[in-house]
Amino acid sequence: MNNIGILILLFIMAIAIQIFLKPNKKRKKKNHNNYNYKSNNKNQYNRKKTTNTNQGYKGFYKQKTSYTEKQKKGEEYEKYISQYFKTKGWISYEHGAEKGWKDQGIDLMLKKDNQFLFVQCKNWNKNHKYKMGIKKIQQYREKTKKYMLNNPQFSKILIDLYQVKLVFISSEDIYTKEAKTYIQENKNILEYQIIPMKNF
Length: 200
Description:
About 55% of the residues lie in helices and about 15% in strands. By secondary structure, the protein is an alpha/beta fold. It has one domain: Trna Endonuclease, Chain: A, domain 1 (3-Layer(aba) Sandwich). A 5-stranded mixed sheet has the order 1-2-3-4-5, with helices on both faces. Helix 6 (about 175-185) links the parallel strand 4 (about 165-170) and strand 5 (about 190-195).
């Protein structure tokens, strides 16, 4: 056998080895039941995040609703006090309802004869954690003073013609002992009244 014949024979043998002796690689079946921990953990995180977000929205909505209810309760009491004084011959201007959050804490302005009252109303429960202390009363004095300075012509008329007082009116006794003492010591300008909501 010549060299060419030997080369052809070797070539054929090589092909046969590749075909018959090459190990079979089984096709890997896709297991649809495999658990993808990474993907599942991510989904759990997303679900947890979404749940927390929803809880956050609910909490915010609850808080907002609570604030709205408190605001409504305060406005109803202001109107009640306004009507209460009208039945006693006072002229009432509902400053808080007119000005909203710009009212400087002045809910009502009441006038009768030579008396003029800057009124702040509080429809608080006496068992609530919030109380009317000296600091809140002093803040109201400062706000009223600022209001009068910003309205000089109006203030001049008040000072010339009326006896002006700052009056705190609440539906229950929410004043601290120190606040009552402070009001008594400044009774020429300060006063507090407790007027429960009821039919009159």
